[in-house]
Design brief:
Layout lengths: L1 H5 L8 E3 L2 E3 L6 H17 L7 H22 L4 H17 L12 H4 L19 H7 L7 E2 L2 E2 L3 H6 L3 H5 L6 E4 L2 E4 L7
Antiparallel strand pairs: 1-2, 3-4, 5-6
Helix pairs in contact: 2-4, 3-4
Length: about 190
């Protein structure tokens, strides 16, 4: 009745909202398969044989990880999908093709170490980010404001180095009303 009055349609689970599947119950591989297919499609469509290893690692870090970050923070992916995804990532870096396996001389966990520890700086997707970063990524805007200035946690800045430059360009419109600090939007009248 309320849906008809407001002009909404009644939906069913599962559905996709902001690129993430919303479902009831425990996470199943079926719900994450569309994201997995997008990642595989991106990896297989690149002409990896034209890229050197450093460029393939850069593509992996900048594009593939950004596609997965939001979903991996919301849900614990099934282990089978994470292993399949890491296999595709390994194959892309080492052999230029997500389906072709190449004999490796360096273990994947060593490749996933930071540059300072002789790794390639790839973040493994099988391990979640540190709790401080995970909390930071799921926080509200007001959690990052202190004394009318942006205050980002150091762990979040180290994980997303471009974030600080982008966020500092955003002006924080505030007003004091009834002893509260309020965010001003276009809809509010002073």
């Amino acid at each position: 009745m309320l849906a008809q009055t407001l002009g909404f349609q009644e939906g069913q689970l599962p559905f996709t909202y902001l690129g993430v599947t919303v479902f009831n119950g425990r996470p199943m591989a079926l719900y994450f398969q569309p994201i997995m297919d997008k990642v595989k499609s991106k990896l297989s469509n690149w002409k990896a044989y034209l890229l050197n290893m450093d460029e393939r690692v850069h593509v992996m870090k900048s594009v593939i990880h950004s596609m997965l970050t939001y979903s991996l923070l919301i849900y614990a992916w099934p282990v089978s999908l994470i292993k399949e995804l890491e296999k595709c990532m390994r194959n892309f870096i080492w052999s230029d093709d997500i389906c072709k396996r190449k004999l490796l001389t360096v273990a994947w966990h060593k490749v996933c170490k930071p540059y300072s520890e002789d790794g390639l700086g790839i973040r493994p997707i099988s391990f979640p980010p540190p709790p401080s970063v995970q909390v930071g990524l799921l926080s509200k805007v007001e959690d990052f404001i202190l004394n009318f200035q942006w205050n980002l946690p150091p762990d979040l800045v180290s994980l997303l180095p471009n974030l600080e430059g982008i966020i500092n360009q955003v002006h924080i419109p505030f007003s004091h009303r009834n002893g509260e600090l309020r965010w001003i939007t276009r809809m509010q009248v002073p």
